[in-house]
Amino acid sequence: MPDLSTLTSLNPLHGRCSVINAAALFHIFNEEEQLHLARALAGLLSPVPGSIICGINTGARDKGPIPLHITDRKYHLFSHSAETWMDLWYGNAFEKEEAEVWVKCGESVYLGETMSYLLWYVKRL
Description:
By secondary structure, this protein is α+β, with helices and mostly antiparallel strands. 18% of the residues lie in helices and 38% in strands. The longest helix has 14 residues, at 31-44.
């Protein structure tokens, strides 16, 4: 494994990561960028069965931008439903026989607003 403190690129980590925590990451990107990110993380994941990418991010009943108000600012976070989240990974980053995608949709209160979230993992088979 390369010395992480000397890396200027993630390329030396291609296929070498057994655990990737992608919490609170995907929803800051638009749909196209999320697809690119999923493929990039899949490339970093070790081919060893049990290697896993996990995270939590905003979710929605129907995929699309959802508004988030923080103080006086309004943001639109692109969010997936549980079904479209699975579609993001299957057939794009992995084939179904290569990985298991698990996702749970829930709700919590954040800054006084009820927000949907996706708790998820993608595990190499």
